[in-house]
Design a protein that fits this description.
The protein is an alpha/beta fold and 490 residues long. 50% of the residues lie in helices and 16% in strands.
Length: 490
């Protein structure tokens, strides 16, 4: 079943339909008026037969739809009538009415119309209630006319006026039925009227009412389904709208973050750069005092100067790290094929040369090349291998192992040491700026090195992670995709 809104086009299963409606005659208008409009549009002569008040309703409804009723009546395209001359003393003769319809169809064709479009109130057409006993006979004869002649039409039954048995017969005799303004394309209860006449089943009960209820129930279920689907579509549309709105907001936020990040990076770079001059002045004057006026200084003054020099050294390291951190974000990457094994070995050689008395066993396995910025990737190796040397410095049997491999389109590298390690419960803090898991009195550092490493690797589209245990060393693993790195932030 499928419902059809008034005036909407739908596949026709039969030109012989019926309308079952409740209440006021105006409730027929959503079905009858589109039928007559269609008939006029297709060049048919259009007939409406009913009581005078209903005829006035139909005439007014056609006028509201832009039809010049007077002109159509004058040219014979419209016949709006309350004529009951087909009734002989109130008795209904099916054959006489059908014959009249045949004459009207033939007359319409002779007058240049394509056929007849007819509808009317069956209570007006059939007259007395007893005449509905001959309804099936009439419908059987009428169906023959629909098959033989250019006729389209709707028989109308007002449910609260027409006898219940007539409703049953109407449903059984029409393959297409309007219930209210809805049209099931296939009437579940349809039985051709000739078969009904041959069967001799003339039982009159409330089955017609039950049939109407079933059709109405099915239509309501379909309406509920359609409303639910419409609500779902609206919900999906609203979700898409909200998703698009959220995406726009996120894009705006990301753009703002990029702009603010760029501003902060520029500020950080500027401040760090500007701090170097006064810092070097402080360091220089402190060294002059130590070197040129040592005899005039008390032990306490000399101790204070040593603290100043240590502080300026730490401050200088911090500035260097801040500048490197800013550089890693601002610099335009220059991707090239990088010999990662050569970079790692070069860093190891520098660290060993810086601490010739240090005893540490270092192994560097064959490493796959990477696609990236060589200077920044060298910074990664410098920080990670430097940390491995630093945090294994208290071990007499210090070991640092460097390895890597290829996994699909990714290059994987790792640095392992047997140093002090760390508690995995705090692993999330390792790559945060200025975060330290060990005190400055234990190991030197600014807390920027690993956050710098993470930033460089992220700029290359890679990932880094750490594993460790207290007293059992740590392993840092990072991956790099075999594709050009992303553009700089900002």
């Amino acid at each position: 079943m499928k419902d059809m809104s008034p005036g909407a086009a739908a596949p026709e299963t039969s030109r012989h339909k019926c309308l079952i409606y409740d209440g006021h005659p105006r409730e027929q208008l959503p079905v009858v008026v589109p039928l007559l409009l269609t008939g006029l549009r297709e060049g048919r002569r259009c007939l409406y037969l009913g009581d005078p008040k209903t005829v006035e309703l139909v005439e007014a409804a056609l006028a509201e739809r832009g039809i010049d009723v007077g002109a159509e009546l004058r040219r014979g395209a419209l016949l709006l009538t309350s004529d009951r001359s087909h009734l002989d003393g109130g008795d209904f003769d099916p054959a006489a009415l059908v014959q009249m319809l045949r004459g009207l169809i033939d007359g319409a064709v002779r007058d240049g119309f394509t056929g007849l479009c007819a509808t009317g109130d069956m209570m007006w057409e059939l007259g007395n209630e007893r005449n509905f006993d001959r309804l099936l006979e009439y419908e059987a004869l009428l169906e023959t006319v629909f098959q033989e002649k250019p006729l389209m039409g709707i028989c109308q039954y007002r449910r609260d006026v027409v006898p219940a048995r007539a409703i049953q017969d109407a449903l059984l005799a029409h393959s297409s039925v309007h219930v209210g303004s809805e049209l099931p394309l296939d009437n579940l209860f349809y039985i051709p009227p000739r078969i009904l006449l041959d069967s001799g089943d003339r039982a009159r009960d409330q089955r017609g009412e039950w049939m109407c209820q079933q059709i109405t129930r099915i239509l309501r279920a379909e309406h509920d389904r359609d409303r639910a689907m419409d609500a779902l579509r609206k919900s999906e549309a609203e979700q898409r709208r909200l998703a698009e709105q959220l995406a726009a907001i996120n894009e705006g936020l990301e753009r703002t973050v990029r702009e603010r990040t760029a501003e902060l990076e520029a500020f950080s770079y500027s401040v760090s750069h500007d701090l170097r001059a006064p810092l070097r002045a402080v360091d220089g004057f402190a060294r002059i005092l130590v070197e040129d006026h040592a005899r005039d200084l008390s032990a306490d003054a000399r101790h204070r100067l040593d603290q100043i020099l240590a502080g300026t050294k730490r401050m200088d390291l911090l500035i260097e790290d801040l500048l490197a951190f800013s550089h890693a974000a601002r610099t335009v990457l220059k991707p090239e094929r990088v010999d990662m094994e050569a970079l790692a070995r070069g860093v190891v050689d520098e660290l060993v040369a810086a601490e010739p008395k240090r005893s540490v066993t270092v192994s560097v396995a064959a490493l796959p090349d990477a696609l990236g910025d060589a200077s920044l990737l060298r910074q990664v190796w410098t920080n990670l291998i430097g940390n491995a040397f630093k945090y294994s410095g208290k071990r007499a049997d210090a070991r640092v192992e460097i390895g890597g491999g290829t996994e699909g389109s990714e290059r994987r590298y790792w640095i392992r040491d047997n140093g002090v390690g760390f508690d995995m419960a705090h692993a999330g803090r390792l790559f945060e700026t200025f975060e330290r898991l060990h005190g400055r009195n234990e190991f030197e550092g600014t807390g920027i090195g690993l956050s710098l490493v993470k930033r460089i690797i992220a700029r290359h589209g890679g990932r880094i992670q750490a594993e460790g245990a207290v007293g059992q060393g740590a392993t840092f693993t990072f991956t790099l995709p075999d594709r050009p790195p992303a553009p700089p932030i900002g």
